[in-house]
Design a protein that fits this description.
two-stranded parallel sheet
């Protein structure tokens, strides 16, 4: 059984565990949307600060590009963490993420990770993300079964009378 991810850290900044295709695609689209918004904001700031031509003596453009580059670092780290978890679902080691740094191979690698079905059942990297969901709160253990208790008392003798009262 797998646990449901709760929060930004558990969804985007974990490398352990597994991630199925649908969740991987949804989270990649969320990161893509955030990065598009950042690039639009950067373009608006560049246009508002005096134009698109960068002049060597102006530090404004350098500051804008540096600021947005710093904002893109968590998005990049998060996308690699998602890819590692997706590789774990396929049954591969996270070291295969290094294939993403080879220019032509990276496109085929991304398509493979997107369309390859994950391993069924548990594997070395965790429980099946498509399996039954485990509750986040630990459940109390069941009460131990009483070995002397019986469901029915049909086998008990019925011809035994209670003891007589000695004072009567």
């Amino acid at each position: 059984m797998h646990q449901i991810d709760n929060g930004i850290k558990e969804n985007f900044f974990r490398w352990d565990g597994r991630l199925n295709r649908l969740r991987f695609l949804k989270r990649l689209l969320a990161l893509f949307g955030i990065s598009i918004v950042l690039y639009i904001l950067m373009g608006i700031l560049v246009l508002l600060s005096g134009g698109a031509a960068m002049q060597p003596n102006e530090n404004t453009f350098t500051g804008i590009y540096g600021f947005f580059t710093l904002l893109c670092i968590p998005i990049t780290v998060s996308s690699y963490m998602l890819m590692i978890r997706r590789l774990h679902d396929i049954g591969l080691s996270g070291f295969f993420i290094l294939l993403a740094f080879i220019p032509i191979v990276s496109l085929g690698f991304l398509l493979y990770v997107l369309f390859k079905m994950g391993t069924e059942g548990d594997n070395a990297y965790g429980a099946d993300p498509l399996g039954t969901v485990a509750s986040a709160a630990p459940t109390a253990p069941a009460a131990p079964e009483n070995p002397y208790a019986r469901a029915t008392y049909a086998d008990t003798p019925t011809d035994i009378a209670p003891p007589k009262d000695p004072q009567s």
